[in-house]
Amino acid sequence: MKRIGVKIRSWFWNTKEAARKFYSWLAVFLGLIFLILTVDKFNFLWIILLFFLIFFLIILSEFKKILIFMFLAGIFLIIYWLMIPKIDNQALNFEAKVVDKVSFGNFVEYKSNKIFIRGQNQEIGTNLWISGVLSRPRNQSDFDLVTYLKSKGSLLVLDNPKVTVLETSKNIFTKIRNFFKTDGRYSKQLIPMIFLAETPPETNDFRKWLVNLGIYQIFVISGFHINLFKKAIFGVSKAFKIKPFIYKPIFFAFLLFQLFLFNFAVSFLRGFIFWSLIEINKLFLNKKLNKIELLSISGIVILSTNPLIFYSIGFVLTFTISFVILIINQISFSKKWHKFIVQFLFINFFSAAFSAFLNSQYNFIAPLNVALFTPFFTLLYTSLFIFIFNPIIIEWICKSFIQTVEYINDFQFLTWNIRPSLSFLLFFCIISLICFLSLEVTITLSRKKFQQSQNLKILK
């Protein structure tokens, strides 16, 4: 019995240490999300999850993290309160500048309120004279406009708008975006998506095909592209024997430029902040924090810009997949290809859950499509970048690719129509985190037992 008690205490201690190492900052990050969810859309489920995370931190004896959470919670609640519009149902005439844009409208700022104007397609920085009636957004179709606008930090829309352009934007990012806009039938579908993180109305069919194939995430600007840029710039720099203190600041400036060009796309923003925190951790903190902690902190930083950004599907998906990859990377495998297979299976496992939730269906051939298109994307991106000044070749490449995607889409025969509930999705993620923790603890204990056996052999 005494031996069993020792084993139980050892298992509990290792579980606690692994949880503190991987999940304490993650608990703070998720706690802030559930706090804002409770305030914005009251539900007992959010309250239960919030108190569960606080109780989890208490079990881990992470009292400093609890104090940090309480401090951040106060800040986030103040930011949320400031976002609540103080004006509603008012007819106004005012001058404003475009601060954000999506495929079906513009956002302008007026008295610290971010206002959505449907049907406008002006570049960021354009000055407008606007008249109309300010009101709260309402859902008038299957598309959840209210939640979407919340994810963009907007709680007001302009009804019956009359817009006059006073001065068009002339900044360098507008000029670059205009350069990438082509008139070709196929290139105007693919080029904005790949190089500008935009999905104009012309891409609707193409986007549906990518979603059905389960490869849309490859073509959305994200940390995947940052890794692509990093390998290219670092590889060239090392080939020419350029010192890290030279090429790393250049890479940082390049990412910052891309961030403005992509209009702070949330997936790319996550990658930018995450990479910056990794470098800060190396230079100033002597790698005190692990990457899972850094990813959680980067999520908190992004939440501080808009506490409702978690309504963005891109935000949820990019952080979920990133956490899966990092947690698996923390686990030691005897062979690299074992880790690759586990990563591939788990990433597609999570993608399947989110794909079914978002699209009400799942394509069982999606993992094969991902394996096929991921390396091909690098070739496509490089080819388009090289021939960007030749519209004829660009149009031919885009036409060939889009028609190929359409052709492959017609052969997807293992599609299951299903839509899991949000509660199921949350339960799925929580159980998965527990499984990851158990796996890490099991491997840690096995490693310790192996080391102890080796020490005994040496003593003998």
From TrEMBL:
Localisation: Cell membrane
Pfam family, one: Competence
Keyword set, alphabetical order: Cell membrane, Lipoprotein, Membrane, Transmembrane, Transmembrane helix
Highest taxon of the lineage: Bacteria
Membrane topology: Multi-pass membrane protein
Main subcellular location: membrane
ComEC/Rec2-related protein domain sequence ranges: 204-437
Organism encoding this protein: Mesomycoplasma hyopneumoniae (strain 168)
Entry protein name: Putative membrane lipoprotein
GO CC terms in record: plasma membrane
Transmembrane segments: 21-38, 44-60, 67-84, 209-229, 250-278, 308-328, 340-358, 364-389, 422-445
